[in-house]
Amino acid sequence: PGVNVTVKDSNITYAAVKIAEGDLNTSNACVESDNGFKPLVQGDMNATFTDGHFVGFNDYCQDANTLVEYGCGKNFQVDGNVTPLKAYAFTFNCQDLNKTCSIGKCI
């Protein structure tokens, strides 16, 4: 399950699957260590949602090819839009970069 999307970060466009999104009170309510959709960098995201719920997630490998990447909408475009009041979870196929997934990143 999920929605196929394009994610653009630093002038690189990736095909990904959006598996979750959440609404934020402010764009500052979401912080991530890798500052965007960066499948070659293992990162973490901390977010406080509109209902006051706080979460912290680390990017991780679902299997040898699939990366689960978390991100703050203010740091990249999803289907051409910057959405600073959203936090996201995506799956990404590391094989698209001729890589495999290990330790929360494509290598």
Question: Could you list some keywords that capture this structure?
Answer:
globular; 11 strands; mainly beta; 51% strand; 107 residues; 6-stranded antiparallel beta sheet
What does this structure look like?
31% of the residues are buried. The strands form 3 sheets. A 6-stranded antiparallel β-sheet has the order 6-7-9-2-1-8, with no helix packed on it. Strands 3-4-5 form a 3-stranded antiparallel β-sheet, with no helix packed on it. It is mostly beta strands and 107 residues long. It has strands at residues 3-9, 12-23, 30-32, 44-48, 54-58, 60-61, 66-72, 77-78, 86-93, 101-102, 105-106. The protein is 0% helix and 51% strand.
Q: Would you summarize the structure shown here?
A:
With 107 residues, the chain is mainly β. It has no helices and 11 strands.
Secondary-structure blueprint:
Layout (H helix, E strand, L loop, with lengths): L2 E7 L2 E12 L6 E3 L11 E5 L5 E5 L1 E2 L4 E7 L4 E2 L7 E8 L7 E2 L2 E2 L1
Antiparallel strand pairs: 1-2, 1-8, 2-9, 3-4, 4-5, 6-7, 7-9, 10-11
- Global geometry: globular
Class by helix and strand content? mainly beta
The radius of gyration is 13 Å
Low-confidence stretches: none
* Share of helical residues: under 10%
